[in-house]
Amino acid sequence: MSLEMTFLGTGSAYPSPARGASALALRRDGQCWLFDCGEGTQTQLMRSHLRAARITKIFITHLHGDHFFGLPGLLCTLSLQSNPEASKSPVDIYGPLGLRSFLWRSLELSHSQLLFPYAVHELVPTQDQCPAEEFKDFSGLDRDEVLPQGPPGRVLHLDPGEDSYLLVEDEQLVVRAFRLFHRIPSFGFVLEEKPRPGKLNVQKLKDLG
């Protein structure tokens, strides 16, 4: 398995002409996974050797603007560069509770229609992830409204036994989210490669005793 990381933005809360807002791309077996999507991320992608059309998963650490204000624009640009395909797999987006409503409303208010499907998988935070006065419960967002075209996705709760959230698992790796303490609920993401059995020449070992 080949993994390659590209730092697209490291400018923290205040981007500059030389440093974009937070974004990191991980290239894996022809796919591109994006971690955070601050404002200007799509421009940084154009300056890099990466192909934005290869993005299949997006992970948002927390809902401070410098980490996700670039997401609606990136999705719209990807749509302009794509062709409608009924069989195309959705772009999976992972992030804190409230992200689905933000994306749906941003695209709805701007009359943006994506030519590809996407799914938003929300992580339910715990109250001890931030100062008590900063914690807001977004579980009731849009509860009384009908969202006929809202994106699908899972609602993920903390697994107490693992003290983490299981996001992705395939034959090669596992991706989990862990709680971080910040001014608002925040998450870190860990990619763990599964053990791979080695290849041994049994006869050669026998010959060597």
Automatic annotation (TrEMBL):
Oligomeric and partner information:
Homodimer.
Protein name stated in the entry: RNZ1 protein
Query: What do the Gene Ontology cellular component annotations say?
Result: nucleus
Q: Which gene encodes it?
A: Elac1
The record's section on InterPro entries has: RibonucZ/Hydroxyglut_hydro (IPR036866), RNase_Z/BN (IPR013471)
Lineage, broadest ranks: Eukaryota, Metazoa, Chordata, Craniata, Vertebrata
As cofactor, the record names: Zn(2+)
What domain of life does the UniProt record list for this protein's source? Answer: Eukaryota
Q: Which GO terms describe its molecular function?
A: 3'-tRNA processing endoribonuclease activity; metal ion binding
Q: Which PANTHER family does UniProt cross-reference here?
A: ZINC PHOSPHODIESTERASE ELAC PROTEIN 1 (PTHR46018)
Q: Which Pfam families match?
A: Anti-Pycsar_Apyc1 (PF23023)
**Keywords assigned:** Endonuclease, Hydrolase, Metal-binding, Nuclease, tRNA processing, Zinc
SUPFAM superfamilies per UniProt? Metallo-hydrolase/oxidoreductase (SSF56281)
State the organism named in the record.
Orthonyx spaldingii
